[in-house]
């Protein structure tokens, strides 16, 4: 198989392999890029662990730090990982509450890919003696993934982890 046949739908990707990548310091969903799923006939999870997410408190302007967990079941399109990294970096100067940030991220990824299922979980480091860990998810309406989303939402935190290193 030639490179051109194997990577024919990758020609629209502008960030992957680009050594001159511009870093955007304010929220910008336009940086996200997608490519074709090579296995649309199969349901499988793709999971991103993002341990260096930062945003700003919209009231105080103080930085907030989190590990984000993004899991999705693709359909036709998938998010390109470098564009996701740059997109998440664009939150660096974004003023948003934790709950708002995870929902914005999920909504932008739904708009980009139209996945079968997606969930975003933010585990933020404590400020003022409290940590906030918002979780949101979505399953395509009218499919088994809608029921899956409801089940996972109702059961996502039945066994909270022991937090001793934040």
Automatic annotation (TrEMBL):
<dbReference type="InterPro" id="IPR016856">
    <property type="entry name" value="QueF_type1"/>
</dbReference>
<dbReference type="InterPro" id="IPR050084">
    <property type="entry name" value="NADPH_dep_7-cyano-7-deazaG_red"/>
</dbReference>
<comment type="function">
    <text>Catalyzes the NADPH-dependent reduction of 7-cyano-7-deazaguanine (preQ0) to 7-aminomethyl-7-deazaguanine (preQ1).</text>
</comment>
<feature type="binding site">
    <location>
        <begin position="79"/>
        <end position="81"/>
    </location>
    <ligand>
        <name>substrate</name>
    </ligand>
</feature>
<dbReference type="InterPro" id="IPR043133">
    <property type="entry name" value="GTP-CH-I_C/QueF"/>
</dbReference>
<dbReference type="InterPro" id="IPR029500">
    <property type="entry name" value="QueF"/>
</dbReference>
<dbReference type="GO" id="GO:0005737">
    <property type="term" value="C:cytoplasm"/>
</dbReference>
<feature type="active site" description="Proton donor">
    <location>
        <position position="64"/>
    </location>
</feature>
<keyword id="KW-0963">Cytoplasm</keyword>
<keyword id="KW-0521">NADP</keyword>
<dbReference type="GO" id="GO:0008616">
    <property type="term" value="P:tRNA queuosine(34) biosynthetic process"/>
</dbReference>
<comment type="similarity">
    <text>Belongs to the GTP cyclohydrolase I family. QueF type 1 subfamily.</text>
</comment>
<keyword id="KW-0671">Queuosine biosynthesis</keyword>
<comment type="pathway">
    <text>tRNA modification; tRNA-queuosine biosynthesis.</text>
</comment>
<dbReference type="Pfam" id="PF14489">
    <property type="entry name" value="QueF"/>
</dbReference>
<dbReference type="GO" id="GO:0033739">
    <property type="term" value="F:preQ1 synthase activity"/>
</dbReference>
<feature type="active site" description="Thioimide intermediate">
    <location>
        <position position="57"/>
    </location>
</feature>
<protein>
    <recommendedName>
        <fullName>NADPH-dependent 7-cyano-7-deazaguanine reductase</fullName>
        <ecNumber>1.7.1.13</ecNumber>
    </recommendedName>
</protein>
<keyword id="KW-0560">Oxidoreductase</keyword>
<feature type="binding site">
    <location>
        <begin position="98"/>
        <end position="99"/>
    </location>
    <ligand>
        <name>substrate</name>
    </ligand>
</feature>
